[in-house]
Design a protein that fits this description.
Layout lengths: L1 E6 L4 H14 L2 E4 L11 H12 L5 E6 L3 H7 L7 E3 L3 H9 L5 E5 L5 H13 L6 H15 L6
Parallel strand pairs: 1-2, 1-3, 3-5, 4-5
Helix pairs in contact: 1-5, 2-3, 4-5
Length: 152
């Protein structure tokens, strides 16, 4: 599997753990940075990862910052991205099963490396359930296409 990975300074230490896990799994990694612990802006790393996924260069994206919140918010601005900010295994599973999430956002200041590894394993190994959830995910795409024109 090809995974695009990015982090800011808050996620830099956890990134090495995730890269190690992905290589153990036999996945190939597109590393979009950052390459050090110095302060950087998370959108500069979230957007290239989201674009990799949206444009088919990667099957999934993984983003890491202090909380995962800013990364997820930024990634979700890219058409076709369904980024889930996850801090537990159950949410990782459900984000794939029911929401067909294609980008995982993690908070390095929220979870430790062991939990992060479990979350990544579950996220990458859980298939989308489809069925009634396909219709719901389709409505997310509809909202994305309508932008500010949608609603009531």
């Amino acid at each position: 599997m090809k995974i695009s990975l990015g982090c800011d300074h808050g996620g830099y230490s956890l990134k090495a753990e995730i890269v190690s896990l992905l290589k153990e799994r036999g996945d190939s990694v597109i590393d979009r940075g950052t390459s050090g612990p110095g302060s950087v802006d998370y959108p500069d790393f979230a957007l290239p990862v989201a674009r990799d996924v949206a444009e088919g260069r990667a099957e999934f994206g993984i983003l890491i910052c202090g909380t995962g919140i800013g990364m997820a918010m930024t990634a979700n601005k890219v058409r076709g991205i369904r980024a889930a900010n996850v801090s537990d295994v159950y949410s990782a599973r459900m984000s794939r099963l029911h929401n067909n999430a294609n980008v995982l956002a993690l908070g390095a200041r929220v979870i430790g490396p062991g939990v992060a590894r479990e979350i990544v394993e579950v996220f990458l190994s859980t298939p989308f359930e489809g069925g009634r959830h396909e219709r719901r995910v389709g409505k997310i795409g509809d909202a994305e296409r309508l932008g500010n024109q949608g609603g009531e």
